[in-house]
Amino acid sequence: MIERRAGIVVAMLVASLAAIADEDPVVTRVLSDDIERQPAHTVVPLYPEKARMERLEGEVRVCFNVTVDGRTRGVRVRESTNRIFEKPAVQAVRASMYQPLKPGQKISGVKTCRTFEFHLIPVAIDELEEDE
Q1: What is the domain-level CATH number for residue 94?
Q2: Domain limits at 95?
């Protein structure tokens, strides 16, 4: 579905254990097409509770501009497999920051895109009991 899977993996973070014993919601990958601007702070979206309860998985591609001071602007969903994941993905991009440009440094005005993959991962009941 997403043609540019060769993007840089900027984060692989796991969300906290779910209340349901047989699944652990996570954003498994955050991919970025931008190789020129380095992330300073990447926010991973929260897995929507309703999506977890309905056992939904999906993928969202969000595109945006990065300002000179490293803030994200013009955040828009480019592709989505399910609308329920769009709001958390957009919020995560808006809360993320990039390294600011150095004085006199110029960079192309090309949009940057990130792909968020939302997946439910099976968790053994024994693992949940150990964590409690």
Answers
A1: 3.30.2420.10
A2: 8-131
Structure tokens at 112: 């940057």
Q: Which amino acid is at 25?
A: P
On whether the CB atoms of residues 123 and 18 are closer than 8 A, the answer is: yes
Residue 50 CB neighbours (<10 A): 9
If one counts the domains in the chain, the total is: 1
Count other Cβ atoms within 10 Å, centred on residue 67.
12
Q: What is the pTM of this model?
A: 0.68
69 located within any domain: yes
Q: Is residue 1 part of a domain?
A: no
Residue 117, pLDDT above cutoff 60: yes
What are 88-111's pLDDT values in tens digits? 999 999 999 998 888 888 777 778
Q: Are 91 and 75 within 8 A, CB to CB?
A: no
